[in-house]
Amino acid sequence: MKDWPAMAVPRSEDVPQRQQDSASSLLTVLIAFAANLLIAAAKTVAAWITGSASMTAEAAHSWADTGNQVFLMVAEKKSQKGRDPTHPMGYGREAYVWSMFAAFGLFTAGAVVSIMHGIQQLFEPEPAADFAVAYIVLAISFVLEGSSFLQAYRQARSSAARYRRHTLEHVVLSSNPTLRAVFAEDSAALIGILIAFAGILLHELTGSAVPDAVGSILVGVLLGVIAVVLIDRNRRFLVGQSVTPEMRRLTARMLLQQPQIERVTYLHMEFVGPSRLYLVAAVDLVGNYSERDVAVALRGIERRLEEDEMIEEAVFTLATPDEPSLFRDENV
């Protein structure tokens, strides 16, 4: 074993720091919670004063977002628990479970209520008044929602830079469901405010409640689309989402650059939580050594990889001579 070069595992700039991401996610959720709580209360009062269908839909939207932030805070807390005998891969997938609850809440408390109220207003319109109150509340809401969105955008952009991705692409592909949920909900909130403003303005200008009711329905449809996307992304990670081809190539390059490893014939990487990976690989080691030396070498590779906080567990086995190489050093 003394002639076998030691394996050094480089820490790539493309690999996020789990603790930093968790702290950023928690701050993002707290800011979103505080903003949505204030906005929900203001919109509820404005909806009661004005009788606007669009404002009622926006109030339901903001209350749904406020409740969702509670689910996301629970997701952050529970997913940080370490491994134990009953959960050998840790509790990382708790983040996707609670984020799924938040997405269902957005669909039922936001989308369904908004659409139903809009349809009701189409058939039984109610007179609206005090439009100035609605405009003031919407303007304040836009500022508060914008502040929350900027925090989510800063976190997404910083994380995306490490992966060399576009910010929106990273939000969709990220293993962090909290970041994705807050980013999507704040984006929907800003668009929803603009829809509500247009509906209320047309209501005032035309005297017809139809644009206001249509605005409520459009807000509901927007929330429904966002909720379905979030549910689908969480479902994918719960059932076992693999890494992107870029991350797979990065890992293969890292392995093939090690003096001990000659070939990689099998590589399985699966997310078991936000920024947490389960890695299984079959490799061909350089030289011919005793069974004992090979076993020690493989365990050493596993332990060194697990020093990286993104690797929850690494399992290595030997490749057989007839297995083709998945990667070649010059191609990754």
Strand percentage, roughly? 5-15%
N-to-C span: 28 Å
Using the coordinates shown, work out and report the CATH topology of the largest domain.
Answer: Alpha-lytic protease prodomain-like
Could you give the order of the helices and strands?
HHHHHHHHEEHE
> Whole-number average pLDDT?
83
Give Rg in angstroms: 25 Å
**From the helix content, strand content and strand pairing, which structural class follows?**
mainly alpha
DSSP summary: helix tally: 9
Unreliable spans are 1-16
Q: Give, in spatial order, the strands making up the sheet with the most strands.
A: 1-2-3
Query: Can you name the CATH architecture of the largest domain?
Result: Up-down Bundle
Largest sheet: 3 strands, mixed
- The count of DSSP E runs of length 2 or more, i.e. the number of strands, is 3
